Amino acid sequence: MLIKRRAGWEMPEREATPEGVFLNRRQLIGAGLIAAAGLPQAAAAQTPDLYPARRNEAYKLDVPLTAEDDAANYNNFYEFGMSKDIVDASRRLATKPWTVQVEGLVEKPFEIDFDELLRKLPLEERLYRFRCVEAWAMAVPWTGIPLKSFVALAKPLSGAKYIRFETFLNPRVAPGQGQRWYPWPYTEGLTIAEATNELPLLVTGIYGKPLPTQHGAPIRLITPWKYGFKSVKSIRKISFVAERPKTFWEGLQASEYGFWANVNPAVPHPRWSQASEQVLGSRDRRPTLIYNGYGEQVAGLYKGLEGERLFM
Ligand code: MTE
After folding, report:
1. Which of 19, 22, 77, 203 to mutate to test the pocket of ligand 1 (most atoms within 8 A of CB)?
2. Greatest C-alpha distance within the chain
3. With contact defined as beta carbons under 8 Å apart, do 253 and 1 qualify?
4. d(Cα 242, Cα 129) in Å, to the nearest integer?
5. Interacting residues of 49 by C-beta distance below 8 A, sequence separation 6+
6. Ligand 1 center–CA 64 separation, angstroms
7. What element of type H or E holds 88?
């Protein structure tokens, strides 16, 4: 184990902040207070005319949708602290203007303005299950661009085998990034085959509105068949590379958080079971599903890779 400090997702369930504490906090905080404090007003200004986007009915849920307030007030965003209560802190992140840099093994590296990206590639809404490695789960309507459309836009060269995603780096607005034992900036990775599967979304909205900062504004990844830590927030750089990138959590603790991190009830985390999941905003637990219920879409990606640690 490389770190002495306990990661937030090692927190026992009983220590989690009760959701009731957070009810109505959005209304209570009020945009005026933020403006008075001289802090940027995050996602609110971003191309609201594009939301809600057309829902893609191919992606249906067999579990209830999570209440918006529950999803919006129980977050992991270590840049802004190790608790689940990072809404206020995350609002310090100025998300406009925002550019995404595309580099590495592509025909021509480029930098694209976030608003321009939204006009270039159509948005759609999808209802997805989401499963955190900490064994809590939710189901939410994400709005985003299918990652495979973005890959087509980037025009990778044949030598590109993986995609590496990198979050912003600015310890002045993100105090967590002042903690030197973490390998900042947060990075994640997928194989090109995974990235061009139908499921991954570059998410820019949730519940029919632009993404708020606590969910990773203005643009984050969502890979619904993998544990939530793969779904990197507030992406600044996307690199096409030949070698498998070392990811943030892998760099910190490879024995517990691997590259593949596909959901599997039969493969426990070294310190807790993954057999069932706590439903966010409810007392219910339900059984965990292999690939979080998306086996039909993704199981084929892993044929021939059975020797890999696919589920951790
Ligand atoms: N991305 C960044 N940049 N920093 C983080 O700490 N946490 C991850 C993931 N993406 C994280 C991140 C984890 S552990 C989870 S479970 C999800 O974001 C949580 O997403 P949510 O807060 O929108 O529910």
Report:
1. 77
2. 57
3. yes
4. 31
5. none
6. 21
7. helix 87-90
Count how many residues are written for the chain.
Answer: 312
CA dist 240 and 238 (Å) reads: 7
Residues 6+ apart with CB under 8 A from 9: 76, 132, 133, 134, 229
Nearest atom of ligand 1 to the alpha carbon of 221 = 10
- Per the listing, tokens 């966010």 go with 280
What pLDDT does residue 46 have? 58
CA atoms within 13 A of residue 239's CA, in its CB half-sphere = 16
Of 186, 189, 198, nearest in space to 161 by CA: 189
Taken in order of first residue, the domains within the chain and their CATH numbers are 50-302 (3.90.420.10)
- Average pLDDT of adjacent 10-residue blocks, the chain of 312 residues: 39 37 34 37 61 97 97 98 97 98 98 97 98 98 98 98 98 97 97 98 98 98 98 98 97 96 98 98 97 98 96 93
pTM across the whole model: 0.87
Tell me the CA distances in angstroms from 86 to 177, 215, 234, one per residue in order.
14, 10, 14
Q: Rounded to the nearest whole angstrom, what is the distance from the C-alpha of residue 132 to the centroid of ligand 1?
A: 9
Residues with CB under 6 A from ligand 1: 9, 75-79, 132, 167, 186, 215-216, 228-229, 231-234
Alpha-carbon distances, residue 303 vs 127, 144, 193, 274, 299 (angstroms): 27, 28, 12, 23, 7
pLDDT of residue 14: 37
Cβ distance 73 to 16 under 8 Å? no
- Output the CA torsion sign for 155, 156, 162, 168: negative
